[in-house]
Design brief:
The chain is an alpha/beta fold. It has 30 helices and 40 strands. An eight-stranded mixed sheet has the order 1-2-3-4-5-6-8-7, with helices on both faces. It has a seven-stranded mixed sheet with strand order 11-12-10-9-13-14-15, with helices on both faces. A seven-stranded mixed sheet has the order 17-16-19-18-20-21-22, with helices on both faces. The longest helix is centred in the N-terminal third of the chain and has 23 residues. The radius of gyration is 32 Å and the shape is flat. Pfam families: Acetyltransf_1, ATP-grasp_5, CoA_binding_2, Ligase_CoA_2, Succ_CoA_lig. This is Acyl-CoA synthetase (NDP forming)/GNAT superfamily N-acetyltransferase. InterPro entries: Acyl_CoA_acyltransferase (IPR016181), ATP_grasp_subdomain_1 (IPR013815), CoA-bd (IPR003781), GNAT_dom (IPR000182), Ligase_CoA_dom (IPR043938), NAD(P)-bd_dom_sf (IPR036291), Succ_CoA_lig_flav_dom (IPR032875), Succinyl-CoA_synth-like (IPR016102).
């Protein structure tokens, strides 16, 4: 064991049955427990583990695991409530790339995923140590351990040698392995949430005898909401509250509840949580707020120690509207209407608004969770629950923070293929953003990072609660449009104009109709109708005429959606026509989406019943309808595109790159900006093309470099350098278009005199040919991981802010989106008569930059500006890289937050 291993903090994770275990390095003080782990094994299991049923093997195994630190050896144990239940270890035996692995699990705890979880964590640790292969020897009759290795999701080969089997396990992290880990994690996660979201018994701590307390409101909601399980109150001063039996403590209850809802004062919360854990409670909802740091840590420790899942603290509560359960453990004003929408929020106020809005619309709620301060249960947990509950087909999220965005992204990408996931992009402003250290950091706002996460995961991000509900109404009732082409029909020209403006602003298209369709529409509409797009059917249009018009438009292949903008008129009132009925008398769910805009409507969005039992969304503002249709069109396009893959790259030397990084940080423990030589070496590890350059720290060397590298007509560029210099142009530390020895000498002398005491040398490069100057960069976000940025480059990159961003690792789709998203994209594809640039070369630069960021968590920032793109090649003209001492962390490793 190395000191690094011993200093790693414990990690809590879930077994297949949803129970919590602690995974941590073995310490010398664990010797007796480890020896006991083996001594309590049956003779048969001892024989399978050690190939012989000798009790002396127990002492030897414990001695080995608890021995003093030594290179190439790691041992991890699993424990629950302080009891060791499993051990996994590997030893390289003095080698580098390969290690021998062994696993042991306590008798009676097999088939619960202890060994698999330990091996997953050992695989992650081995990768960080540079180990690429595990080997293991097992008896051929030891089917359990052989199945463990086979089911990991890694490439396993077997070689039979008599009664023994030699297993070789390649530790490559590919999508197959991540998918297998996800599947195991999902099953464990859902199992752990059953006591929380489907409890058979619930107790409320903090329900007072007098009205006005949150605890009493919670108890009332549970009782009045028709909860079908056993319900208890915990109050030492009462035997009955609101008709619910009350007991003085958790331990005095007639049965141990699955779920305890705590509404006690903050100082009492840790004590109550510990009491619950000792009693065997499996889940807590803590609505109490204002816990200080000590109380918060004590609460979380109790939950982790005793294996309880936790919602909150500082939350509104949870609800499951399943009629067979009727769980409403919230203190919202009313009970949510049962339905198909899963809802998770961090803000209780937002939760109340969404519960009320979904209930009013008739969409209803399947499961609701107010996550509050989100100590444990997160949006990722809830997504996995909804994916498997069989009752949810629409998800609404309001998340202010992400504990593990990359794991959330993988889960969301999978879930959004099955059901829409909508969110409010909360916290879009970033007034407190730090001063940027480079172009990359200047461009990378938290808003851009969140938007990249949502876009890549297929999540529909709205800007307000109103827009969220308006979009949910359309998604719930209408099919997604095949594209962005919309036909507008109105009985008032002004309403049609407003709706057309709203559609254009939302990115929708109003196509012109074919002559044949124009003739068909004129044939059914009153005289004076204008059959453009919008279609002005005039105030004289009847109910039947409007229905015929909409039917013809719905059958027209040149549009993807129909939007009606109707106003009440005296003409319709006089004739008894109901223009809204022209739409609702037909089926509510057509082949193409249809929606209404009624400017006189007194609510922002409503659902109108259709003749077939379906519903049609109706909006008070055309902007709301247009934005909802635009969101639906984007989702349809996302679903139509196959899932992206991360392309394989040739010419990458990850080992060399890590060696360069480690060497630099050993000499610069606080990190810093790399000098040009080291920077160039790092780019070379990823085969990123660079313009030739030379380093010069004297005037004479600069002249020689210019003579050797002279570019177009012998002209060169000279750039000053000193540690920490980032914005060369702003510092006027660059001389362009130098020709001949005299100009080179004069430029060097100028830089040397102006930056005396700072400058350590200059970089000389040939003057590059003309082309499009671009910008590519990456910044490591402490929460989201590496973010790759791309856009227009040069000195104006920050001023113009023409950037797009995606989270690494980039797939083939992501890199295409990066290139096409900025406003400068037409320049790359041959606008203004110029030929297209080397798009394949540009994709390679971005993919290789992404790979560098994934390989090197110590890479805090990389800034390629400019990147010169021409029809023949893409070349990095200037590159800056900053490293910081960071410990690698596996974002996909199974662990609780």
């Amino acid at each position: 064991m190395t000191d690094d291993v011993l200093n790693r903090p414990p990690v809590h994770a879930l077994l297949t049955d949803g129970t919590t275990v602690c995974i941590r390095p073995v310490l010398p003080g664990d010797h007796d427990q480890l020896e006991g782990l083996y001594e309590e094994m049956s003779p048969e299991n001892l024989r399978l583990r050690f190939f012989a049923a000798s009790r002396r093997s127990a002492t030897a195994a414990a001695d080995r695991a608890c021995a003093s630190a030594r290179p190439g050896y790691r041992a991890l144990l699993a424990e629950t409530k302080g009891q060791v239940i499993g051990l996994a270890e590997y030893d390289t035996g003095g080698g580098r790339d390969s290690a021998e692995i062994s696993v042991a699990v306590a008798d009676g705890l097999h088939h619960r995923g202890v060994g698999t979880l330990l091996v997953e964590h050992l695989v992650s640790a081995a990768r960080s140590d540079g180990v690429t292969t595990f080997t293991a020897d097992a008896l051929s009759e030891n089917r359990e351990v052989l199945r463990l290795f086979t089911d990991l999701g890694l490439d396993v080969t077997r070689r039979f040698e008599g009664a023994e089997v030699r297993c070789t396990i390649a530790l490559d992290e590919d999508d197959a392995y991540l998918t297998a880990v996800e599947a195991r994690g999902r099953a464990a996660d859902v199992a752990s949430l059953v006591p929380l979201l489907r409890p058979k018994a619930v107790a409320v701590v903090g329900a007072g005898r007098k009205p006005g307390s949150v605890g009493r409101a919670l108890l009332h909601h549970l009782h009045a909401g028709g909860y079908t399980g056993r319900l208890f109150a915990v109050n030492p001063s009462a035997t009955n509250i609101l008709g619910v039996p009350s007991y003085p403590s958790i331990t005095s209850l007639p049965r141990t509840p699955d779920l305890v809802v705590i509404a006690a004062p903050a100082p009492a919360v840790p004590t109550v949580a510990e009491e619950c854990g000792k009693a065997g409670v499996r889940a807590l909802v803590v609505v109490s707020a204002d816990l200080d740091g000590t109380q918060a840590q004590a609460l979380l420790t109790a939950c982790r120690t005793h294996g309880m899942r936790l919602v909150g603290p500082n939350c509104l509560g949870i609800s499951n509207t399943d009629p067979d359960l009727g769980l409403d453990a919230t203190f919202a004003a009313g009970h949510p209407k049962p339905g198909r929408a899963g809802v998770a929020v961090q803000s209780g106020g937002v939760g109340i608004a969404l519960l009320d809005g979904l209930s009013r619309l008739g969409i209803g709620v399947s499961t609701f969770a107010s996550l509050g301060d989100k100590y444990d249960v997160s949006g990722n947990d809830m997504l996995q629950w909804w994916e498997s509950d069989g009752r949810t087909d629409l998800v609404l999220l309001h998340l202010e923070s992400f504990g593990n965005p990359r794991a959330f992204s993988r889960t969301a990408r999978r879930v959004t293929r099955r059901m829409p996931v909508l969110t409010v992009d909360a916290g879009r402003t970033d007034a407190g953003r730090r001063a940027a250290a480079s172009h990359t950091a200047a461009a990378a706002t938290r808003t851009m990072t969140r938007q990249a996460l949502f876009t890549q995961a297929g999540i529909t991000a709205t800007h307000s609660i109103g827009e969220l509900l308006a979009t949910a109404a359309l998604f719930h009732t209408q099919p997604h449009p095949a594209g962005t082409r919309v036909a507008i029909v109105t009985n008032a020209g002004g309403a049609g104009v407003l709706t057309a403006d709203a559609c254009a602003e939302a990115g929708l298209v109003l196509p012109q109709f074919t002559p044949g369709l124009v003739v068909d529409l004129l044939a059914v509409l009153p005289s004076g109708a204008a059959v453009g797009n919008p279609v002005d059917a005039t105030a004289a249009v009847s109910e039947d005429q409007l229905r015929e018009c909409v039917d013809r438009l719905m059958a027209y292949p040149g549009i993807d959606a129909v939007l009606l903008a109707l106003v009440p008129t005296a003409v319709a009132a006089a004739t008894g026509d109901d223009l809204v009925r022209a739409l609702t008398a037909g089926p509510g769910r057509q082949a193409r989406p249809v929606a209404l805009v009624r400017l006189e409507q007194d609510v922002a969005v409503s659902l109108l019943p259709a003749a077939d039992g379906g519903t049609i969304p109706s909006y008070a503002e055309p902007q709301a309808a247009a934005r909802a249709l635009a969101h639906a069109a984007r989702r349809a396009a996302w679903l139509a595109r196959p899932a992206g893959t991360v392309p394989a790259l040739v010419g990458v030397d990850t080992g060399r790159a890590r060696q360069i990084t480690e060497t630099y940080l050993a000499a610069h423990p606080d990190g810093g900006w790399l000098d040009p030589l080291i920077c160039a070496d790092l780019l070379a590890c990823y085969d990123i093309p660079q313009l030739p350059w030379a380093w010069a720290d004297t005037e004479g060397d600069a002249v020689l470099a210019a003579e050797r590298l002279g570019g177009v007509d012998g002209r060169v560029v000279m750039k000053a350098h000193w540690p920490g210099l980032v914005h060369k142009s702003e510092q006027h530390a660059v001389h362009l278009d130098l020709r001949g020895e005299d100009q080179v000498r004069a430029a060097y002398q100028d830089l040397e005199s102006r930056f005396a005491g700072l400058m350590t040398g200059v970089v000389v490069q040939p003057l590059a040919e003309r082309g499009t100057e671009l910008f590519a960069g990456v910044v490591q976000d402490d929460v989201f991981g590496p973010l790759v940025l791309f856009g227009l480059g040069g000195t104006a990159t920050e001023v113009l802010a023409d950037h797009a961003a995606r989270l690494a690792p980039l797939t083939d789709h992501d890199v295409h989106d990066l290139i096409t998203a900025p406003r400068c994209a037409p320049l790359l594809f041959g606008a203004r008569g110029n030929g297209p640039v080397d798009l394949e070369g540009l994709e390679q630069v971005l993919l290789r930059l992404s790979r560098m960021a994934e390989d090197l968590p110590q890479l805090a920032e990389a800034d390629f500006n400019p990147v010169l793109a021409t029809p023949g090649q893409v070349t990095v003209l200037d590159a800056r890289i900053r490293l910081l001492p960071r410990r690698p962390q596996d974002p996909y490793l199974r662990r609780l937050r």
